[in-house]
Amino acid sequence: MYNYSYSRNKSNIYRDKSVQCGCHPIESQRRLEICINSFIDELNFYNFDLVISLFKKVSEDNSLQVDYIDQSSYNLIVNGSDQELIKLEKLFTSGDLEEFLKNIKTEYFSQVIIESVRFREDIEVIKKCQLIQKLRMEEIDKNRLIKDYLTGVDLSGANLQGINLSWANLSNIDLQGANLTGANLNGVNLNKSNLNETYLIQVSLVGADIIEANLMGSDLTKSVLMGTNLSSANLSGVNLSKANLSGCNLSYTDLSWANLSYANLSNCNLNNAILQRSCLNKTKLTNVDFNDANVINARFADNQGINDELKNTLIQRGAFFDN
């Protein structure tokens, strides 16, 4: 229970007339960032709704809601009508908000102190953070990601480490430079997506579809891609060292300058793949189909699954063997 002991006489001068007359306030095109800087050890993600209820109480606005919570800094991004956000900002500037919160006692935390309040207009950045938070908490139906959430959303550079997006439809989206280290992407649809220079270290991509995607310069060290369809994808310059690609479809895939050392490519289809200047040092190549693959200046060494006949054929087609 809350003990409210503060009289809010001054705050009435900020009342939103659109609420008084029964009109629905128009959502603001900007957001209010509220930085909580004290007693943060007593707060956690799940009782921030109690904090926002205090803001609703003092501002007399039930439409206020939190768009996004930065748990690392305990910043709240608050959404509502422009009139009500202005009212809340003025309450902070005048000191009324601080005085009101000073008298609040709850069973969850002793006091809430606000360090700063400021307007933000970088709505697209806020929407990205909001979406990532919902993805982490698995609050979104993965089958409806593209239709309902990802249209026009740029996730390039996003921190998605360890996230579970298995069997999600992520086709055609921009994940350039994103960090997906340790993520579960089993069965995901990444067809025609932009994964240029993306961090995919130790990612599980078992049975995924990554057809015609751009992964140029990405890091997939120690990732698991068993049975993944990478046909016609651009993997130029990727790091696939110690990755498991057994049973992958790599036909017509560009693997030029790729690092495939110590990787497992057993039973892979490399038909018409481009392996120019790629490194296949100690790569496992049992039952690999090299039919019409471009191996000019590709370097092989100590490969399991390469017999003398196939070795000579690859050398004749421009490959180098260091053993």
From TrEMBL:
Q: Name one Pfam family in it.
A: TRADD-like_N
For this entry, the protein name equals Pentapeptide repeat
Span of the signal peptide: none
Origin organism is Crocosphaera watsonii WH 0003
Which InterPro entries did the record assign? 5peptide_repeat, Pentapeptide-BTB/POZ_domain, TRADD-like_N
Q: Which residues form the TRADD-like N-terminal domain?
A: 47-102
